[in-house]
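May I ask for whichever protein you like with its backbone structure tokens?
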Amino acid sequence: MEQYRIDTNKGLEFGLYSIGDHIPNPHTGTMISAEQRIQELIEASKLANEAGLDVFAVGESHQTYFTTQAHTVILGAIAQATKRIKIASSATVLSTS
């Protein structure tokens, strides 16, 4: 497995993160499917990769208006769809129940 790549010459890395918000359209009240929202996250990661960003992160959320309950599965799909961008978990819920 490759060592985690930290480029100390850069000084600052730039990236995007999402917790997969899945809310109704504010103008029409309609919602896209959860599957479509996940596809949008994967597409956003591909665009971030192409734009040269350093990191794309997805967080876990189990609330009603989010699609990232299984964020590690989404991160796996992002890893398959991108070439050089680092992927990360921006939030992981540790349950005590």
